[in-house]
Amino acid sequence: MRLQYALVLFFAILFAVFIASHYYAYTEYRHLFLKNIADRTSSFVSDLEDYELNEIKREQYYSIQNILDKMVATRPIISSLSVSMDGQNINYSSDRALKNSLIPKEYIHPKGSVYEDLNDGKFNFIYDLNYFAGPKMIHGKILVKLNEWRITGEMKETAIRLTATTAAIQLVVLLILAYLFFILGVTPLYKTLHIAESGGGQREYFWIKEINKLHEAILSSFNLLNKQNNQLAQQEEQFRNVFENMSSGAVVYEAVNDGEDFVFKEINSAVERIERLAKIDLIGKRVTTIFPAMKELGFLDVFQRVFKSGNPEHFPLSFYKDDRLAGWRENYIYKLSNGDIAVIYDDLTEKKQAEQAVLELNKSLESRVEEETSMRLKAEQAMYSRSKMVLMGEVMGMVAHHWRQPLNAIGITVQDIPYAFRAGEVDEKYIKELVSSTMGYINTMSKTLDDFRNFFMPNQSRKEFCIEDAIMSALNIATPSLKENQITANLDFAQKHTINGFENEFKQVVINLLSNAKDAIVDNAKDKREINIKTYDNDGFITITMEDTGSGIASEIMDRIFEPYFTT
């Protein structure tokens, strides 16, 4: 019988511990929950201070009514509030029944420690307000009435969840102990009771010891669970701070009619900044009402797909426009565990405008670069044409040099005819010699004319020619001009080289080089006036060097001398 009594007492104590832990969990969480409510209410009073309630007077009552109404409406936990200043009957309340009510003195508590005295279960909070209105101190009080149904609903739901978790842990512990006690028979408590039934002297000592161990184990489990719940509450607060302070817009939508439409349930401050709308103007409103163009854009279809499938989607950068606003938005949509839809989005309008401005600037710059390049090419072509005319003039001067000697000889021969006639020297021999010498001069002039004509006539096709012979031909044309300026041309041809190309064009290049060398020598050389021309083999290539004693090519134009139309 003693064993049976012991078992009854054991389970009675175990049940009492269960009830006590349940009550402790409920009251402890109620205390923490009410502290959270009081803190949220305190932030509401701080917002009231920002609206400078110290300036409220009887005649200003209706001017702030809309402001206070909006503040109450944006906080679902606030049911109503009442303001009394200087003990006068100057009250404001969103609940007309509270408008003329007096505030009992026993409900007044210092701000910051309100939660310690919230034991009346009515969720009504009183705050003392002291303000300076000019030189005068104004005393006031604020009575805030909370939505009891919302608070008690949230508190009960959380407390029930906490209690159920605690009960589950205790039930598992109970089953384990019962299994060890009744089936295995190896626990110290079972052995102690067995000894006590036989008259053992340490019966009560082991009973109390084992019960205390069990109690400590249960309390340890509860404390661990309570600690974990506190950590979850802290993490929730941290996530809320992140939610409120993130730069991206964050919106939580609640589905209507099984996803036919969605209403604003929660937003962060970035949404108010991006959309230029107050929170009170969005909460509870349908998204298609605030953003009527989202159906046409296909954004509502994405909402409905995510709501039905649960798979997150990225709505790429797109341009939204309606009668109220226009801008570029990028959206990320996903479904929460409670069925709501969460949207994180960014306003990239300024970025897109900057990119468009850069593109337009680039187009403008490209157009200007093309225009400047075209003008530069035209100018260089004009300079090239002018240089060609200058070269032609120099060549014509060379022709004149080549013709001057034969013309002088022909002139002397013609002038000699009258003298020879008067001297009786004009005979057949004289006439033959005269014709022969004159025709020689004429043939020389004709050949020179042919050489210059071929010089300016471009080749129609490639042909093989000797480099050294072509250089000599060009040098023969330039020789009179070089001699006139006391310039000596030194040639170093170890052997002759044949190439396939355009001979006349090659001669023109040599003439240009000789002309430039002559100008450089005339402008800068004082004593030594020479042009050295050399050809030689160089690893399978034929190299031609032309060196003069002039000033050389300026370093600033060295990289441009092979550009088309460039001239020095």
Any overview of this molecule?
With 568 residues, the protein is an alpha+beta fold. It folds into four domains: 1-240, no CATH class; 246-347, Beta-Lactamase (2-Layer Sandwich); 351-457, Helix Hairpins (Orthogonal Bundle), CATH 1.10.287; 458-568, 2-Layer Sandwich (Heat Shock Protein 90). It is built from 13 helices and 14 strands. The strands form four sheets. It has a five-stranded antiparallel beta sheet. β8 and β9 form a beta hairpin. The N and C termini lie far apart (128 Å).
Descriptive keywords:
Helix Hairpins; 4 domains; five-stranded antiparallel β-sheet; four-stranded antiparallel β-sheet; 13 helices
Helices and strands in order, then pairings?
Layout: H1 2-50, H2 65-73, E1 78-85, E2 91-93, E3 124-133, E4 136-146, H3 148-184, H4 188-197, H5 203-245, E5 249-256, E6 261-267, H6 269-275, H7 287-290, H8 294-297, H9 299-309, E7 313-321, E8 326-335, E9 341-347, H10 349-422, H11 428-456, E10 463-466, H12 467-484, E11 488-493, E12 498-501, H13 503-524, E13 530-538, E14 541-548
Parallel strand pairs: 11-13
Antiparallel strand pairs: 1-2, 1-4, 3-4, 5-6, 5-9, 7-8, 8-9, 10-12, 13-14
Helix pairs in contact: 1-3, 1-5, 3-5, 4-5, 10-11, 10-12, 12-13
* Order of strands, widest sheet: 6-5-9-8-7
Low-confidence stretches: 51-65, 88-121, 195-204
Number of E strands: 14
Q: Structural class from helices and strands? A: alpha+beta
β-strand percent reads 15-25%
Please report the number of helical segments: 13
Helix content: 55-70%
For the sheet with most strands, the description reads:
5 strands, antiparallel
**Secondary-structure element pattern, one letter each:** HHEEEEHHHEEHHHHEEEHHEHEEHEE
Coarse shape: rod-shaped
pLDDT average, as an integer? 71
Give the number of domains: 4
Q: Termini separation (Å)?
A: 128 Å
Q: C-alpha Rg, in Å?
A: 55 Å
